[in-house]
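Below is how a single chain appears once it has passed through the pipeline. First comes the sequence as given, then the structure the pipeline wrote out for it. We keep one example in the README because the format questions we get most often are answered faster by looking than by reading.
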Amino acid sequence: MDRAHEGGSLGKALDAAATKADAAADALQTTRTPDDARSDNSQLATALRALGQDLKSARGQGGRCATSPRVELGTAQSPKSVEEATRALGALGYDAALRLPRTERAKHRRLANGAFLRDGSRGGLGRLTVNNGTGTDAVVTLTRGRRTAFSVYVRQGSNTTIRSVDSGSYTVYFTTGEDWNGAKSSFTRECGFEKFDDKANFRTVRVSGGTQYTVLTFTLNKVLGGNASTSTVPPGEFPS
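Resulting structure:
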């Protein structure tokens, strides 16, 4: 497991380790055990069986909003239970030391407020301000048809303004969560995927004496008197 890379190879390693943990638990429960070690031996077998389940669970479903299996395993109780049981047996003179898989602490990666993840050609005069009053960071993505126009990072409790938005009708998506994984274009915890039901329509037109252009404000959290409804979007349909 320690040498496996995130993805398929780590998933296979987790399955293999889970199988070995279950086999070790079975072997301990059928082995003749000295009287002074019976209780601790039983605790180790129970801890190994729990470890097998946690190894399987750590694999998760993958895809967006997927926490690293090593982070998942690091929050599980079974590795600590295995260590406690092996120490108890060691104190009795029985060598039961095991090398447990490497775990990781949960990360808290963030981008700067207003940072663009994608930025297409913006040559208009339209202006969009996004207020993020939710409890987590967000990424706001505007699309025209199937094409992503731009995506911008908006930190919790902050706002940002995108200038030079071209004329057109845009769908406004936003995802919220914690710990931004740039490689997967997704947060890894507390994820939400939504879109505004109404299009964002920008126009830049010349008029007598100058130019008129659209200025819009979108607030990601619910506000009193707000007039924009949102819908949940399946993670797989959220634009990358």
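The first helix runs from residue 8 to 30.

See the next section for the split statistics.
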